[in-house]
Design goal:
Distance between the termini: 49 Å
CATH superfamily of the domain at 42-107: PDCD5, DNA-binding domain
Number of strands: 0
CATH architecture of the domain at 42-107: Orthogonal Bundle
Shape: flat
Organism: Brassica carinata (Ethiopian mustard)
Structural class: mainly alpha
Pfam family, one: dsDNA_bind
Radius of gyration: 25 Å
Order of helices and strands: HHHHHH
Region (Disordered): 1-48
Strand content: under 5%
Biased composition (Basic and acidic residues): 34-48
Oligomer: single chain
CATH class of the domain at 42-107: Mainly Alpha
Protein name: DNA-binding protein DDB_G0278111-like
């Protein structure tokens, strides 16, 4: 395979990857700045609504605890927030979630998602072990 053919394949692959991710490098950002701005605004509004709902559902101590969890494990904090919001939308939460209730919820989530560690020991075989 000649070098121009290899370069053409690389360019095609890069274009496919960029299309999959929805970005076209600098050209895409110059063509649709209004679209990008609208997406950012929509995302910001959704985050603000989410935070407002959480502030209504959670007590101040529970919000602080989730904030501390988010510093260490942001995906876990997001999952806990999702569970709380889903429960509130279903009507399962009628009063503000206290820190104690949040702790029990965290323990339940940890027990469901705990990873099982398995240790296997492989012994080296000597010449006479066969």
């Amino acid at each position: 395979m000649a070098d121009p053919e290899l370069e053409a394949i690389r360019q095609r692959r890069m274009q496919e990857l960029m299309a999959q991710h929805g970005t076209q490098g600098k050209q895409g950002s110059q063509q649709n700045p209004d679209q990008e701005r609208a997406q950012e605004d929509a995302k910001r509004e959704a985050d603000e609504r989410r935070q407002m709902m959480l502030s209504q559902i959670l007590s101040s101590q529970a919000r602080e605890r989730i904030a501390r969890i988010a510093l260490v494990k942001p995906e876990k904090a997001r999952a806990v927030e999702d569970v709380i919001l889903r429960a509130a939308q279903m009507g399962q939460i009628v009063e503000k979630v206290s820190e104690e209730r949040l702790i029990t919820l965290l323990e339940q989530i940890n027990s469901q998602t705990s990873k099982q560690t398995k240790v296997t020991i492989q012994r080296r075989r000597g010449v006479f072990d066969y």
